[in-house]
Design a protein that fits this description.
Layout (H helix, E strand, L loop, with lengths): L11 E4 L5 H12 L3 E6 L3 H12 L5 E5 L5 H15 L4 E4 L14 H29 L2 E6 L3 H4 L5 H21 L4 E8 L8 H4 L2 H10 L8 H10 L12 E4 L8
Helix pairs in contact: 1-2, 1-9, 3-4, 4-6
């Protein structure tokens, strides 16, 4: 299979929040195409190690690196470990994030800060650390995992929507800034995805059915439904796509 996708075999991809959900799916997709992978994680060491082992079973090299990317020094450590092991970084997937909120008049400063620090600042930290290496090699692909919430807003999670909207503006800014250096920057904006992040709300079958009914394709996305589009944006097929927000939501949110 890797030979069918020129430009992927032997590359190196870093995926933040790579031990579960969309991040793990992206890791699996990269590995199937022959791309070496770095699994970033925050707390679940066993899940990260299992993800790395599964990638290695596809015939690529893989390492798991613990780092809290909301802290610049730790994001820098993540990229340093990547360079130390592989000598380069070709693809960066900014996927790590959380989803929590409350009505604005009940939201604590801690809830607001935690969301912005991980979702938005954490995107900046890893880009800040990775871009110098990509500039040196005159090549790079950055894919930021945003959300439909960042496009249309979402009641009672204004902090989440703000962080995801910020990622979209950040994507467009970096696309203009880094394009001249051979670095493409794009975003994938998922709608509802069946991962552990949504497990609590989907535990109510009536709520999940209402969501499914609102999606023209009639189902909630799987993690791999998002993972493959992430990888697509790193392939040679997407070499002239830059600053794009790729909606992957089954037609539930139709943004121009």
């Amino acid at each position: 299979m890797p030979d069918q996708f020129p430009g992927m075999k032997g590359r190196v991809a870093v995926v933040t929040g790579g031990s579960r959900g969309i991040g793990r799916a992206a890791i699996e997709c990269f590995a199937k195409l022959g791309t070496h992978v770095v699994v970033n994680y925050l707390s679940d060491e066993s899940a990260a190690a299992e993800t790395a082992r599964a990638a290695e079973a596809s015939g690529v090299d893989a390492i798991a690196v613990k780092a809290d990317i909301s802290v610049l020094d730790q994001a820098t450590f993540l990229i340093k470990k990547t360079i130390d092991r592989f000598g380069k970084i070709d693809f960066l997937v900014c996927n790590a994030g959380i989803w929590e909120g409350s009505p604005i008049d009940e939201m604590s400063e801690q809830v607001w800060d935690r969301m912005i620090d991980l979702n938005l600042k954490g995107t900046w930290t890893v880009c800040h650390a990775a871009v110098p290496h990509m500039k040196k090699q005159s090549f790079g692909r950055i894919v930021i995992v945003s959300s439909t919430a960042g496009q249309r807003g979402e009641a009672n999670v204004s902090n989440y929507a703000a962080s995801k909207g910020g990622q979209i503006s950040f994507t467009k800014s970096l696309a203009a800034e880094l394009g001249p250096f051979g670095i493409n920057v794009n975003s994938v904006a998922p709608g509802w995805v069946d991962t552990d992040m949504c497990a609590d709300v989907f535990s109510d079958p009536r709520f999940k059915k209402s969501i499914e009914d609102s999606i023209p394709l009639g189902r909630v996305a799987t993690a791999h439904d998002i993972g493959w589009p992430i990888v697509f944006l790193c392939t040679e097929w997407a070499r002239h796509i830059n600053g794009e927000i790729l909606n992957v939501n089954g037609g539930s949110v139709l943004c121009g």
